[in-house]
Amino acid sequence: MRIAVVAKAFDVLGSAKCTRALCIDSLASTSIFFGGWRSGVRSAVFWLGARRAYAPVFAGRLCVTYSRSLCDLGEIGVSGMQKVLMVLAASVFSLVANGAVADFEMCWSNVSTRNYDKAYDYCKEAAEQGNATAQGVLGFFYSSGLGVERDDATAFYWYKLSAEQGNDGAQLALGTMYSSGRGVKQDDSKAFYFYKLSADQGNAYAQLNVGISYAEGSGVLQNYAEARSWFLLSALAGNMHAQFRLGQSYALGEGVEKSNKDAVRWYKRSAKQGDAQSQLNLGVIYASGDGILQNNTVAHMWFNIAAANGDANAIEYRNRISESMTNEQIAEAQSRAQRCMSSNYTDC
């Protein structure tokens, strides 16, 4: 399946001394998400936003300058339910080394303009001075081949240094590398360990992966109730894939009392973010009328939308249900599908 990641713009807090800069308290945690390839690396997704501020022990702000908007859009291609989310959530904690901060500012400035060759040089300088953020960025460069030849073993090295400093994004990246065996011997137990470290810091993608690990018994004893709890945490943070898995938990009665009504509630949240699997499952539930009011028109609408979003099975389901519908009902379903998609899922 393909995971679409939409980069969201956060309010930029300026100051008299730092124009066009993101300024945070010296001990604030800042998330930076990278990603992006389809049929080879095409673009990078940048998501920079203040997430969680800790009480500063001294006055001061860290201003990271940038030269363009950071709300680019992109996609991350992934494979199956064992997705490898090549995202980076890096944290800046202090102004300990002025040289490292300056190098990182230049690193980020060049990353934001996609000048990866120059960005690599500055990031490497900052990373070698111990900047956890730069170490994570360097790991991403090596894992994706941006600005440098792809080298999974070297990516693992830099991610590990960053993760050891508490970087939740680097911990997530290490988990995905252990899970897939990229750059390191495949080990589901270690994958779970690093997913859990990241998830405990509130990383929604890691929370999803912890939930999947519990659901599948991968690297940890299978426990549907634990899986459901982690899916819920990630789903409440807006992760559409966790919302899908939570809907699936209710539909199958795994770790929670079976309820198609609750399954529909979570499938809808995911479906309205564009998840084709959730859209297909909504169609199936509405077609069956199991636990909810049966409605062929709504079922056809969701099958049609799922098919438009690339789900091949949805085409068969749509054609099958059409056989029990009138031409007028089909026309209504098609009209509703068009309205739903053209409104970006606000009118479904």
TrEMBL record:
InterPro entries membership: Sel1-like, Sel1_AlgK, TPR-like_helical_dom_sf
Gene3D superfamilies tied to this protein: Tetratricopeptide repeat domain
Protein name: TPR repeat
Organism: Saliniramus fredricksonii
Taxonomic path: Bacteria, Pseudomonadati, Pseudomonadota, Alphaproteobacteria, Hyphomicrobiales
